[in-house]
Design goal:
TIM Barrel, EC 3.2.1.14, chitinase, five-stranded antiparallel β-sheet, about 400 residues
Length: about 400
């Protein structure tokens, strides 16, 4: 298998500071600045201009380039969780697709970005508003999604990059099937598979949110649908997730993996009931969670259950770092540096994936130990420590 070629980091407005040490950022080949709103590109009269672009992003492409090694590709990520309105309007008609795509192309040219990352979560349904607008009313988006990507490719031309962030749960892969993928692949350079948040507030049992086994399940779903491994990036989460478990009926004391949670979202509206959450390594731990999180960090363990030996995925997928706090009935799930390194061979060598990415770079500050682990893990399978080649002799500008 060839060594992976891409190492992408999302850089976010919430945590906009990467490491200042050049050796820490030099291996990174791509950076996606998150986010510009999708609705910005629906504007017709007047069309969006440089002021709109600069106000729509937390930094400029020019400033971002100064933070990374020469030749690093800088993409502008469009969309994000809950941002669907602009995409939906853009995909309604051929004319709307053309307008949206041409506005995107003007932004890319005006900012001198190297391309865009399309972060529509999710075409076809199961987005943030899935309770208010059922999937049956969004099925038209499934064939429209590749048409939008095609319009963007036409407007950008062949030399600019187009990537897309795509769901990691098979239940959400409504627009990514053996029928639709061929059309999608004609337009995109690679997909960023979000192999994190694999447990979320829609679940009712504990799982590893970025566990190895469920991540394999996600990647294999795309490969079986026709995605070439070289066009797949594996996702890593530089943050921690927690969920409240059912103290009375959960059964967590007997087996904390796969035990019952409390109700975490409103069954009618889908609204967050405040029974779960997340925070990055850069964030201050919420005061009400501090004692529980301290116990988790001191007593967390790695689940070595191998679901490949069983047809039962109900235990939460296997192969992830976790802690169940019996004192406060809280399930903690996160990746340690060791868990990150454990994923290298199954995915990069075993599946031959073309790269890795993380959400997000600044979220791992100030120590950046998960970034270091990911870089070391990739280096151990052939991705170089220097920033100028991709492990198989090609220069960064050729990627």
């Amino acid at each position: 298998m060839a060594a992976p070629e891409r190492y992408l980091m999302y850089l976010t407005g919430q945590h906009p500071r990467p490491p200042i040490t050049p050796s820490s950022v030099s291996p990174i080949t791509h950076v996606a600045l998150a986010f510009m709103q999708s609705s910005l590109f629906n504007k017709k009269d007047p069309k969006p201009n440089r002021t709109d672009w600069e106000q729509g992003l937390f930094t400029t492409v020019e400033e971002a380039r100064k933070m990374f090694a020469p030749g690093t590709k800088i993409l502008v990520a469009i969309g994000g969780w809950g941002d669907t309105k602009g995409f939906e309007e853009a995909t309604r008609t051929e004319e709307e697709r053309r307008i949206w795509a041409e506005n995107v192309a003007e932004m890319v040219g005006g900012t001198r970005a190297d391309g865009v990352d399309i972060d529509w979560e999710y075409p076809g349904g199961n987005g943030e508003d899935y309770k208010q607008t059922p999937n049956s009313q969004k099925s038209w988006q499934i064939p429209a999604y590749p048409l939008l990507l095609s319009a963007v490719r036409t407007a950008l031309g062949p030399s600019k990059l187009i990537s897309a962030a795509v769901p990691g749960l098979p239940r959400d892969m409504l627009a990514f099937t053996p029928t639709t993928l061929p059309a999608i692949l004609r337009s995109i350079d690679f997909l960023n598979i979000m192999t994190y948040d694999l447990m979320n507030r829609r679940d009712n049992i504990t799982k590893h949110h970025t566990g190895l086994a469920l991540s394999l399940q996600a990647v294999d779903a795309y490969l079986q649908a026709g995605l070439p491994p070289a066009k797949a990036n594996l996702g890593f989460a530089f943050y921690v997730k927690w969920f409240k478990t059912d103290a009375a009926n959960g059964g967590c004391a007997e087996n904390p993996i796969g035990c019952k949670t409390v109700l975490m979202e409103d069954p009618e509206t889908g609204a967050d009931l405040g029974q779960s959450g997340a925070f990055s390594w850069h964030d201050k731990v919420p005061e009400e969670l501090a004692a529980s999180f301290e116990r988790a960090m001191a007593n967390g363990m790695y689940d070595r259950y191998d679901p490949s030996k069983s047809d039962d995925y109900s235990r939460g997928g296997g192969r992830g770092h976790y802690y169940w706090d019996a004192e406060e009935n809280i399930w903690w799930t996160w990746d340690t540096p060791e868990a990150i390194k454990e994923k290298m061979r199954p995915f990069m060598l075993g599946r031959g994936l073309g790269g890795a990415f993380a959400w997000g770079l600044g979220e791992d500050g100030p120590e950046f130990k998960h970034l270091k682990a990911l870089t070391e893990g990739l280096g151990g399978i052939g991705f170089p420590g220097s920033g100028m080649t991709n492990g198989v002799g090609r220069k960064r500008d050729e990627l």
